[in-house]
Every structure is written in structure tokens, then in C-alpha cells.
Amino acid sequence: MIKSEDNSKNKCAIVSSKSDTKESVIDFLKKAMDEGIFDAVLIPMMTPAGDSFAYVLIKDKTLLKDGAPLSPIMSVQGAKAVSSVTRLGKGKMKIAAVMRPCEIRATVELSKLGQTDLENITLISMDCPGVLPLSDFLGDPKKGMKLFYDAAEKWDYKPMRPVCQICDKSSMIAGDLHIGTLGAKKDTFFIISNSQKGKNVLDKLGIDPKESADSWQAKVKTITEEKHKKREKNLKELKSKIGGLDNLTDTFSQCINCHNCMRVCPVCYCRLCYFDSDKVKHTSEDYLKIAERKGSIRFLPDTTLFQMGRMLHMSISCVSCGACEDACPVSIPVAQIFSMIADETQGLFDYVSGRDIEEPLPLITYKEEELNDVEDSND
Amino acid sequence: MEKKIGVYVCECGPNIAEKVDIDKVINAVSSIDGVAVVEKFKLLCSGDGKKFLEDEIKKHNLTHLVVAACSPKQHEQTFMEVCENAGINPYLFQLANIREQCAWITEDKDEATEKAIRLTKAAIGRVRYHSSLEKKELECTPNVLVIGGGVAGIETSLQLASPDRKIYLVEKSSSLGGLVTNFEKTFPNMSLTSDVMKQKIQSVNENENIKVFTDAEVEEVLGFFGNFEVKVKKRDEDKSSAEFNVGAVVLATGSTLFDPKKTSQYGYGELDNVVTALEFENMNSSGKITLKNGKKPNSVAIIHCVGRDETGYCSEVCCMYSLKFVRYLKDKISNVKVSNFYSDLCIPGKTYQKFYDQTKGKHVDFIRSADLKVTKKGDKLNIEYKDENGSKKNLGADMAILAPAMEPTSDASGLAEVASISIGDGGFFSEEHEKLGQISTTTEGIYIAGCAQGPKNISETLVQADAVTGKILSSLIPGKKIEPEVKISQISESFCIGCKKCINVCSYGAITFDEAKKISVVNEAICRGCGNCVAACPSGAATLKHFTFNQIYQELMEAVQ
Amino acid sequence: MTKALKINKNSEQGIIELLKFLLESGKVKGVFTLKKINKEGAIAYSLITKSDELKDAVPFYPLMPTNAGKLISRFTLRGSTNDPVIAVVKPCELRAFIELVKREQGSLDNIFFISSTCGGVYPLKMAVDNTIEKNLSKYWDAVMKGEVPTDLRSACKGCEEFIPYTADMTVDLIAKNDVDKQCMILLNNEKAEKLTEGIKGEFLTKELDKGKLDKFRTKREAEKKKLFDEIEAKMKGLDGLIDIFGKCLGCHGCSKVCPICYCKLCEFESPDSEYKPSRYEADLEKRGGLRVPPGVTYFQIGRLDHITISCVGCGACEDVCPADIPISIIFKKVGESVQKLFDYVPGRDVEEEIPLLTFKKEEFSEFED
Q: Which pTM was predicted?
């Protein structure tokens, strides 16, 4: 069972590490592969041209040294990578996937939707400092790397994606194991197990989680509260800017309906999106009829409809990762908008996407007593 | 192929003609693309009207038919038959309701005409995109599975059994008869029960068209109306099982009594001489009503509404059988004093009041009470209570008989899952509709009868047994084929990505998951065409026949122009 | 010599006046053109039916938010339009539409086209923050002088197909120093002449200035050579392709905005392209490591294979790429090589069959044994 309970109850292990956390995590994974606990590891790696990072499924241990957990950019949302490996079945390999908390949460959501089989996957998350916007990295990758690693070390989230800057779930435990770097003494990190699967891994490695995670918990609390404050402020401003149909239409006026946001989104899983299907392909008569009513319509119409439709379909599972905003060619703050609405749609059901794999999706779960406050008083 | 739509406006006697300017409607739609002919007629549903339509279709070689007349509920079937007789697929037809939705709701002729025009245009806009749909026929078996060998089960079995309809009666205990076999007499006639029951049980056992399983449970019910595959497991030494096919299933599993041990106020299980109604019935049937010490009781308290607060409903029968208990006591113990403690008295219907009036009398009290508690006082029982004015009172009694609430049997929820029906109020099986479908369920072919559906007395149980019999006799006719719903959902194999949202929201269990292809598949025999799956599918891979996006869109576009 | 219509307004206003005339006279029911759609100046193609909406039209704006060929294809996908409609499009957009008509993805019936000799468009990124608006006079200066502005879409910088083939009316904008004073509309066929009957303006005969346009072409050729040489160096062999497509996100945005990509469900998104676990396991056994999701370079090569015969080099793909891959130049280069083999220019003539789908008994004998 993967549950994200009150973390302060967690017992953890304190693992001594090299000063470079990246290297230490790789060592940990290598050891686990040596012991036969994992057959393969899913982790980001730099591309051959050195200009980007991509998820690689590694079986050959010698390749591990080039692994880059918590890469500076998120070119592909990790949940998509996991899903592509196990959508059609769990396979024989035991795989460890090292990803950011939002990627793990999206993976959990996809699991609820039959898009990934997690039986042979161990999900390992890490405290996340955020991730750089793609455009700030691609122009000069070397500069981008320095920018990211310097900022990450200081836990300075200002260079990160706008939606990362207001993320109050950057240390959320949603997988099987969590590597905690915050509040750790020099040359150590915490390992917290969150499930039986996680515990089994630690057992096999001879790691006994018996330390208190208090110092990690305290640092996480400080950072989370700070970001939560920033989140409330930013989203309040955003709401006034885009609230109302006119403002909303203006916000999306530059949108060219390329649907990039939809395709990079980890929880948009449809093979053929409704808004790419025959249902939105009308006859010339119909288009002219609609145009006549207003005298002029943008062509193709239904831009705001696509955005709202997508929001309607996936908001309940949105993990606020920000992949959409990175992919938008006209720089619409789509991640911030969707993240803001996700808070509200999920809040309505006391649901947090990806928090618990056993938690059913609210919109397709029937409950006889529900949402009484919106019922007609005459019922 | 070129479409030729025929549009016919019905005057409906004066109903429509007086309120709608039909000529204006005709003018408004004559020049629409694809419309080959527009006519009006006095009464299209009459013999003449139907013949007229049939002739028109043939004369003009029409491909589609639109009728602007009354409600589809009234005559959609009628005009679909006309289409069939005239040689066009009955689904290439649309009925625009310009009577109930138009002529009958406004006095303003202009408004009515304007709306009639819109509705007719909308129907034309829609029918253009209709597809021919074919009816299917399925073989079905007329046999029936009855679960529960009590009054309801026995009655249903006896009424349905015939040489061309075999009944399988499954009873979990070792004998038939159910709760009623414990009763010496039944209200209000105080007639002897056991002989009647013995006779009924004998009839069942002797009927060669009824196969009885005792000490047995239904393990599996798969399939659909007309074609259920049943597995029954027997609790014998070999743990053998039986498999057979039936066309319908009747759940007549009866009820059990609320356990008074769940509340401490009645002293049940702790104090001597506090008994439940069932225990008292058995005591009475044995011939002697005695206390634990063997003596006869001189004073008896009958406590109604036991467990009513906990269950939240009135069990309907207890007040009446409490009156019966008064009679039992009076018959067997002279000068016995009986006090009935109740929170509300339930004496409904045309016959029960007389029974109550005749039972009241010397040494018979009816006390309205609250906050009742049974305690010990010496070797007697003491009933503490608050009377109607709220004052605390006490009454001594030798024996206390508790009338507990009627509850569903403990295996009800398990059976509900097996039969794919839901549990409703009180934990009883959920009926399809409180008024319009008391003995049917949302799963076609699965019926409920008797106390399994909710607390009731024997006559009501028999009525429900009759009702279920009627339903099955009329719908599951030997030799007749089942025509499943035509306007059903279909899921595109290429676009389905296997997220199972449709399966989650299907109330009929009509969608299964193909593990090999990792896609959802609609069972065309069970699907009722409700459209939940279509709404839930985010990519539109699920569509509803005769209610495609395009059909609805076109109708809407015309209507709101 | 071709008939022409002169309107004494700048070229953009002249076209607007023509469109106004056509709508008000009922000769067309709708107009497709670029338009400012809100007060912040966001620009999108619009379908206009009321003539006073034309006041916000910007027919020759140097921006291509979506390839109009794709839009007209969508307009006529479910059947040709019964009501006449006129569209102001760029030459590559018109060519793209012709290629789609050849594939049953649109209909030419009842649609008229106005195009221009095209000075190119700016990348989509510059539409955000009104940067294009600020550069507008600089742009028209360069176009009127017959020069190639440096910050155009790279596909435009090297585009040699700036003269429309099949437009009903053409406005010559390149290297013309009077486009800000007059609007000269070449009426290329009878349809155009009929449409303009009754409009207030001067009718004369005119031709495209071949000399000026040839001079301009050499400038564009030089830019193209630069771009192609640059990409050729990077694209050598499979390793080169892997390098260049390394940062591809697999978002398929290039495919979605490409006018020539018209499939309902792309093969590379269909179940055929999904890996079963056994395939992963086999690959890992062989290679030790595998990028996931798989098929990044495979998708690009596949798309090159499917569409380059008709690639019109519009550059919409590169504008939408989040990873800044020079995809338009790659496709343009491969496109032109393939098309050259058959002496084919996509969109030149709707009657011209698509080479790869046409069987010719005698062909490529030089490759025969």
C-alpha cells in the first residue's frame, strides 16, 4: 500500500553519503542492483549531445554513473516514462524509478486509470528543489546546469518553473521510498520507507529504519509553509487576472490550439483526445452559421472550450508539475491556471491527486451521501 | 445516396390544429435541403392516417420520415411500425412533439407556431444523421431460479412451475417453510398455519417441475435476462455443486430479527424470562407458555418497537402479532394480565382495526411509553418507562416479550453482489423504483419478493409473489426470443485506452474488460443505453447508437437558432 | 498580360476594401483572414461574415499562428461549402491546402483565394509581448526594399516559393516601393474578374515584376544555402540524427500543426507503436539501456518518410517545438531532395498527382540493374 501519512510518524534510516547527493543516490541504486533487488533502474540521463536530459531504463550497471536523479529540466514527465514501460503489463524485471514527487503522484494517478502496472516497480522520490523552465536551459545548457545546481544546493527556487515556485508538495511522500536531503547532517541523507515494498528493499539492503525523521520533518515544514504562503498570494493575483469569461478568453487569446499542453501532460492519457476527434469537426454550414451569429469568429473556434474541456477532464488528477507551461509555444501561464483550479476541484472532495493509490477517483465513485451543501433545500 | 425526407404534421383532431398554425409550419420547412414532401393530416395515428403515411412513403420513395405530432411515449412505436411496413428502417424516423411540448402549454398561437417550427426543423436536422439500426433476437430459457424456500419462494415456485418452465428452488437451511413454520396461528383470522404450510411444502416436493435444493447456497449468477448461468453449492459431505441455466432469478430470502443484545435496555440475555417474539412463538407452538421456573406467568409485558431507533424504520407487522400474542396468552392462561408498551401503534388497513378493537379489553393494557428499561425486581421483572406526560412510571411483570425489528438476513449483502443488485434502505435489497418497480431491480431479470425487499406481513408477501409471477409469465414466455435494447453504447476498439472509467459508472454491469487487448467491451444484451459510459469517457471512444454527438448537436443547433 | 485592379489605398487597406465589397455585395458569404481579435492585439485567423468586422482585419500581417491551409481543409473536411467564401492566405498555406485536396482532406469548390508574393513571417514567440507589432515598420521597410529581415522564421528566410501558384488574385508586395500607397491586385482568372465586377477602382493590365523577384530569389537562395549547410553538418548519419533529435520531448507538436499531417490517429500514437514488456526486455538485453518513452528518433524518421513529398516548408513545426529543434529546416531540406527526384513542387497544381502514390511504368531507370 502506498500511503502518504503524517510524515512525522515515520521512522527512517540515516545513510552516510558522499558530499555529492547525486553520486550517493547512484551508489545506493548500484548496491541495490548488485544485491539483485532491482533488475533495472529508471532515471534521467544526459543526452549524447549534452543539450538535454531524458529518462533511460538502465540494465547495464556501468551506465548508472551517468544517471542524473533530479535533472535540471523535466523534458518528459516521469509518469509518462513509467507508463510507457508497464502500460501493457508488468513484465519480469524489477525496476526502481527515481523521480520527483509530482512525477510519482502522476504515476499513482495513472495506475488508478489502468495506464501503468506498478507491481514490479519501486517508486523512489526525493526532496525536490523544483526544475528549470526548458527555455532557460536549452539556449545554453552549460549555463543552465550551473544555474540549476547552484540554486538547488541553496534550495533557492527563484530560477525554477513558476509552478514549482509555489509548490507546497515538494517533499510529499507518495511512492515506496523517499530520499530526504533536507535537514540532513553533512554527508548523510534520510531514507524513509512508505510501504511494505519499500521496507522490503531496506531489509534486503540491511538498512533498519529506526531513526527519528524529526529534523527532516522540521525543515520540510518550514519550506512547505513558506511556499504555501507564496502560493496563496500568487494564485490570488492570478485569479483576479483571469477571472470572468472575458478575462479567461483574453488569457487564452494567443492560444493556437496546438494541444502541446495536453500531450505532455502525464494525466492526459486518452489515445485520441476528444478535441482531436470527429466530434469537433463541423460542416462548413455550421461554421458559417456560428460565424453569422457574431459577425466574426476566430478560426478554428473553440479555443477556450478546449482549455476548459481539458480542465474538466483532468483537473481531479492534476499534480501541478508544470510540463504544460514549458511546452506552450505562446507562453500562456497554463500550469499556474490549471494548478489553481486543481486545488479547488480536488479540495471539493478532500482529494489530493496521487496521495494514496487506494484512494478511488472521486468523480467516478458513487457515494449516496455527498455534497449535501449544493443540494436543493426542497429535496 | 440522396436523402428524401418526408415531413408530416398531424392536426391531432383539434388538439394541434387549433393551437398551431400548421400551414405556417409547412411553409417554414418545405424548402429545407433534403425535404421531399411536407403534408398535414387530420389524425396520423388512426387507421387511415397510418395507411396514408405508408402510401406516402412508397409514393415518394422516401428514405427518412419526420412526423410532427404528439409525444414519442404515445406514438413513436406506432410510426416506427409504419416505417417498417413501408419498407424503411424504423430508426430513420423522428417524432417532433408539438402537442405536449407546444400546443398544450400555451394559449399564444404565435408562440406555439414559432416553437412548432423550431421543433420540426430540429427533428429534420437530426433525422438526416440517423443510421439504420437492426433489432436482435436472443434465445432465452424460461426456467427460473428462486432463492429462499419461505412463503414468498414457495408461492412463486408453485405458481410458475409448469412442464415448459422448470423452477430451481434453493434453500439454505435443511427444510422449507421459512419463519412462518414457527407460528401456531396468523393474524387477523387466527387460523392455524401449520397444516397450510405442510400442504404447501408437500405440493412443492411433489411437483416434478420444481427441483428443490436444501442446505444449499447460490454461489454464482452470471449472464443476463433470458440467459443466466447459475452455480449452486451444497453443504453436504461431498460439497457438491450444481450448474444450470435460467431466464430469471427471484430473491425471496426473507428476513431475520434484530438482536436485542445489541442494546442493554431490555436485559435480553441477562435477565430470565425476557424473550423475543420468535422464541415466544416457539414456546406457544410447543403448547405450554411457562416461565423459567416452570410456572405460568400471571402478568406479561409485550414491548413493541425494539430496535426501531437503531434501524430507523417501523417493521409494520409487530403491533399486529403482538395482538396475536395477547390472544395466545388469553387462550392459554386465564386471567393473565397483558400490557403492551409501544411508541407508535401501527394498525393499518381495512381489517386490522376490528382485530385491535376485539383484542382490547379486561386485563389488556396499551401503554404509550418512552425511555423503556427492563430491570429485575426480586424474582419479577420491572418495566421502567416514561408515560405520555413524561412522568416516570414502573410496572411489574413476570415475563417480557420483545418485538424486535425485522432485518435483512446476514447473507443479504453477499447475495446482492452475486446477483449484481444493490442494497438499499435498511440493508434490504433495493427495488428498482419505490412505486413503479417494487419487485424488480435495476438488473433486468432479477426480482425480489417478500421480506427480502422490506418488512411486511404474509398477505403482502403473497401479493409480491403474485406480482413476480406475473412479471415472469409475461416477459419470459417459453419459445419467445428476447429482444435486447437497440440503442446501446459501443466502444471503439482503436480509441479505447483501457482506463475503465466507463466500467466504474455502468449501473448495469454491461461493460467488461478484455485483458488481452486492454480495452473495454460492451455486452450488447445487457446494455440499456443509459449513456453513463458515453459521458464518462474523456476521449469519446464510447458512443451511443441513435444518440451520437452529431445527431444531438444537429438537433440542438436547429432548435436554438 | 493579366488584368489587375488598382485600389488607391495601401495594399492591406486595399484588400480590406475588396473584402468589404465582396461581403456587402453578397458575392461571398464569408472571409478568412488574419484579424486582431481583442484589444491587446492578439492575432488569429478569423471567419468573418459581417463587413464591419473587417476593420480589425490584418490580411498581410507577418505572422502565421496556424497554417491556413490546415484551417481551410477543416472548413471543408465534411463537404464542400455551398456558400462562396474567400480566403487571404500566404503562398505556402495555399500550396498546403492543394496538397490536402489531393488527399480528399478538403474541397476547392466555392472557395476563392487571395495571396501575395510573400515577405515571410516572424516566429510565433515574437507574437507574445507584441514584439512583432513593434517591428512592423522595420519589416515593411525590408520587404519594400526586397530584403530578407534577419529575425524571420528560418523556413521563411530560405524560402524560394514566395510566388503563389494557384491563387485567384495576387498582390505583389516584394520589392515594391509603392505598396504603402496603392493596392495592385492581379486578377489571375475569370473567377477573379467576375468577383471584382462592380467594385470602385481602376482596372488595368499588369504582370509580376520578374526582374525584381528574381533578384530577391537570389537573396533567399543564399540564406537557404546557409541554413541547409549548417543543418547538413549536424545531421550526418544516424548518430547525427540522434544528436539533433536528442532533446525532442516526443510531444508531437510538430505533427499536430503541420498541414500535411492529417491522420486521425497517428501511427506513432497507435497501439502498433506501443512496446510490450517482452520488447523492452529484449532490447535491454541487447543494449543495456533504453530511452523511454521509446521511439523518439523513429517518430521523426517516420514522419519524414510520410510527409516530406508534400512538405511546403512553411515552418509551423519549428514555431511550436518546445525544444528549439531546427525541425523546419530538416524537413524542408529532406522535402526538397525528395521532391526534386520527381520534379515535383507540392501544391503547384491540383491536377498533378502525388509521385509516391502514382505508378509509372517507366521511372528511375538509372537505378535499374
A: 0.81
